[in-house]
Structure formats: structure tokens, C-alpha cells
Design brief:
The protein is of the alpha+beta class. It has a single domain, classed as BirA Bifunctional Protein, domain 2 (2-Layer Sandwich), CATH 3.30.930. Helices cover 34% and strands 21% of the residues. It is built from 8 helices and 9 strands. A 5-stranded antiparallel β-sheet has the order 3-7-6-5-4, with helices on one face. A two-stranded parallel sheet has the order 1-2. β5 and β6 form a beta hairpin. It is globular. The protein starts with a strand and ends in a 6-residue tail after the last strand.
Length: 223
């Protein structure tokens, strides 16, 4: 599962339940809430776009704009979905996706926009691992809202691979696509970043205030 950049690990995750179910917890660089993810049960996509593409839009409007294409794709699969501020894709049956953004200022500026979609879900396991609905703990940090999740498998009746193919085809029809690949240099750099930062206990357990230069560890390492 993945937690947001500003979240408290202690507030969001039951470490004993995560270990019992073999769930690895990672922290992303973008904000937003925790997402319960399991291989084969999740569909994710990321957009990296120039910040000029969303200039003039409010933060909330930029979410709606960058997710507009997927609403059409879901509609073609028989799912009536809409954008629900600030960062959810919802249906009458419940939430099916959550988005997060990171504004990158290096170079000419860019926006990283990524979305996690629930294809299928084990609700019992999710509520064991996530502290959603439990008593509030003392650490500060963005809290995940308790929201009903209704996965795409039930709503579409399609295999996961078919849902992915239709999402890609919809994006291609709207904007066009050119296939690419991760270079060896990019893969090496990604592995280096994971080993030195993003896969470390220090990064995952940190609690970063929204105020500059206030970073602390939010979970005791003795447990």
C-alpha cells in the first residue's frame, strides 16, 4: 500500500496487520491519502506534463482537467463516473480511484499527476491494514477519509487486462500515443533512488509538516 507525502505512517497503517498479510508500505512524493494496493487488483497511471498545460487553472480544476479523459473511457465501459473534489473519481456505487499531484519546479517546471484505480479489493484485509475509522492518534498528518470503494471488476464485468486495454485505446484516440521504453540509465537511476531514499525506513516513517523545514519521524523504531 502507498501513503501520501504528508501523512503519518502511525495514523494510517496497522504495522502488525501489514506484516501479517505481507503488505509492504511505501510513501510517495505527492500528497493525498493512503491507497490500499495489491498486485493484480489495482490499475495505475501517471501523467507527466509541462506546468504550462495547467496554467490558469486552480489546483482542483487541474485534477478535473487531467482526469477528464478517463471519465470518457469509463463511460464507454458502462461506468458513469465523475470527478469529485479534491482528488477522487466516483460513481453512484462508490469511489473507484484517487489522484495525487506533485508540482516539480526543476528546469521549466512540470506536473506529475498519478491515479490509483481499484480493479478488485479485499475489504476485510483493507480495513485490517488501514486505520480508517479507528480512533485518532496523536501524530499530525493528512488523514484518509473513510469512503466506500466499489471496484471496476464488479462495475465493468471485464478482465483487468481488458480494462487497461480500453483505457489505453481511449487515451490514444483522444491524444495519440507513441510507445517508448525505460532506458538502462533511467532504470539504474531509479534503483539508486529507491535504495538511497524511497525504499528506506527513514523515508517511509517520516512525517513532514506542510511548513518548510519541519521533518520528524512519526513511528517508533523500537516496534
Amino acid at each position: 500500500m502507498v501513503i501520501g507525502s504528508f501523512q503519518s505512517l502511525r495514523n494510517e497503517v496497522d504495522p502488525e496487520a501489514a506484516e501479517r498479510h505481507g503488505i509492504q508500505v511505501v510513501r510517495r512524493i505527492s500528497g493525498g491519502g493512503a491507497m490500499f494496493i495489491e498486485p493484480g487488483n489495482t490499475i495505475t497511471y501517471s501523467l507527466s506534463v509541462p506546468d504550462a498545460l495547467v496554467q490558469g487553472l486552480s489546483f482542483a480544476d487541474s485534477y478535473a482537467y487531467l482526469d477528464d479523459w478517463v471519465l470518457g473511457a469509463l463511460g464507454d465501459m458502462g461506468v458513469r463516473a465523475w470527478y469529485q473534489p479534491l482528488n477522487d473519481i466516483a460513481t453512484d456505487a462508490g469511489k473507484i480511484a484517487g489522484a495525487a499531484q506533485k508540482r516539480l519546479v526543476a528546469g521549466e517546471g512540470a506536473v506529475l499527476h498519478h491515479v490509483t484505480m481499484a480493479y478488485d479489493i479485499d475489504p476485510d484485509k483493507m480495513t485490517e491494514v488501514l486505520r480508517i475509522g479507528r480512533e485518532k492518534l496523536s501524530d499530525k498528518g493528512t488523514k484518509s477519509a473513510k469512503k466506500r470503494v466499489d471496484p471496476l471488476r464488479r462495475q465493468t464485468g471485464l478482465p483487468r487486462e481488458a480494462v487497461i486495454e480500453r483505457l489505453v485505446a481511449s487515451f490514444r484516440d483522444r491524444y495519440g500515443l507513441a510507445e517508448g521504453r525505460v532506458t538502462e540509465d533511467e532504470l539504474t537511476r531509479a534503483k539508486e533512488l529507491a535504495e538511497s531514499k524511497f525504499a528506506t525506513a527513514e523515508w517511509t516513517s517520516r512525517c513532514r509538516s506542510r511548513r518548510p523545514r519541519r521533518v520528524r519521524t512519526c513511528v517508533s523504531k523500537s516496534r
